Amino acid sequence: MDGAIHVLTGPTALPVPARGSVLVCRATDPNRTPLIALAGALVIDLGTPASHGAIIARELAIPCVIGTGDGTRLLTTGDRVHVDGSTGVVRVLQQATRSSGRREPPC
Which domain of life is it from (predicted)? Predict the structure, then answer.
């Protein structure tokens, strides 16, 4: 699945991500399920295939790469990526403009 990244950095997600966005977060919990329902794919730093985010992704039939460890650090809202839940690969297609000027590697 190809899409634009929306990084969730805190317990609330303002602004609400666009439908079909690739949600990137440190972890998930049941309070984030309404946001996950909008997602086209998930990239989650912490967890296993038996974690909440992976289970919800399977129920919603959306790709999920879980256990990245540093997706929230390496990806920026606005990046375009390809998420392959079958292989566990997230490939950056196009980076958003970085205000800091630092180059960040793909995850």
Answer: Bacteria
Position 78, amino acid: G
CB 1 within 8 A of CB 40: yes
What CATH number belongs to 2-84?
A: 3.50.30.10
> Which residue from 86, 31, 81 is spatially nearest to 58, judged by alpha carbons?
86
Digit-coded pLDDT (tens) for 25-40: 999 988 888 889 999 9
Q: For residue 103, give the amino acid letter.
A: R
Segment holding 42, helix H or strand E: strand 41-44
Instruction: Provide the whole-model pTM.
Output: 0.86
| Given 2, 27, 52, 96, the catalytic residue | 52
Domain boundaries, the chain: 2-84
Give the pair of three-digit tokens for residue 106: 């793909």
